[in-house]
Amino acid sequence: MEKKSNHFSGQLGFVLAAAGSAVGVGNLWRFPYLAAKDGGGLFLIIYLILVLTFGFTLLTSDIAIGRRTQKSAIGAYTQMRPKWKFLGILTFLVPVLIMTYYAVIGGWITKYAVVYVTGQAQAAAADDYFTSFISSSTSPVIFALLFMGVTAFIVYNGVEKGIEKVSKWMMPILLVLVVVIAVYSLTLSYTDASGQVHTGWQGFLYYLKPDFKGLTVQRFLQILLDAMSQLFFSLSVSMGIMITYGSYVKPEVNLNKAINQIEIFDTGVAFLAGAMIIPAVYVFSGTEGMGAGPSLMFISLPKVFSAMGKAGTFVGILFFVTAIFATLSSCISVLESITANCMEIFHTGRKKTVLVLSAIYLAVSAVIALGYSIFYVEVKLPNGSVGQLLDIMDYISNSVMMPFIALLSTILIGWIVTPYYVIDEMERSGDKFRRKKLYRVMIRFVAPVMMFILFLQSTGILF
Q1: Known CDD domains for this protein (predicted)?
Q2: pLDDT band of 194, cuts 50, 70, 90
């Protein structure tokens, strides 16, 4: 086995970096929406079960493959089975596409953080503020380039001195901020025009209480697929990131404990994200304000912060700083995955590789940022939605490629190289792989079927 020159200093550094990759903007703007839409506690129960089974299986596979091969996606799959190199190439293309727009979203969040820090919170609550901002031909480009530049600088400094060093202080701060905002959301109360009092605790109970009203087999299946889709994207699996991070893990690190810690951190932040957003939106906007994606973060929440009065500005600052950390940690991992693959393919050094990639993605990010103005297009996607440039890239990478890659990888591991390829690596440090039987059943029988169904649903073929 080839010895990797880059590595994390130990288990803590790896866990925080991997958790940083997993805790992305989807935890903040997609998880709360799905929880509110899909029966509150019912969604949470299903999600937790999937974390312990489906998510555990894919996460374990990626990390173990990375450490065993000491390579990133293309090299790892090639080493496993040369005829399956195409799967490594497909996996490599996912972060290549995601990187085209992730810095743009990071730029949007940074813009709102600046707006709140500079005392313009009321302006951000206006109905047309977000639309006016993203349709501008200058502001979204500037903030996207700024975010891309910071990401590139961290990756440029390497695994231990860049990614790990930043993750060790950024992730604990992110966790503290999420807890603080969640606790504050529970203390909120608002009396509407009819005299009815809405409290944060009511919103929290709405979030936790399983709603079985109108539950049918089809609705249950839809909730299951929503939870699986959220978990799939949240853990950064099937995009090569965890394979790359796994290749940086030292042999003596206990992968069993590390994977458990990553699962706990990611799931904990997702739960707390719901606890800080759902009660706040419920108090001031009811269930009607619980939109998904950008509309939740950039339209609904600024209105909620505005309704809080003077405290809203401070809470807004905390929230968007939290969102910056979550987005930056994920953006770093996406660029690192691309960088690692390119270093292996072209046999180039880190600094030269990052500089070339930075130049490319600075230009591409500018184009995507202008996708709502100069380069505006409307394309009807196979799932029925209409998207612009950013939506097209997101749809291809997340809805089409990632489920397809996960399906193929479960077939490769479960039936061709056999599960023991991963199991042996999990027990390499001498520790017992306690979920070995579960892993074998999931990777061979359950996960392939689930991924096939998710692929059909994500592409609009099913439902």
Answers
A1: SLC6sbd_Tyt1-Like
A2: confident
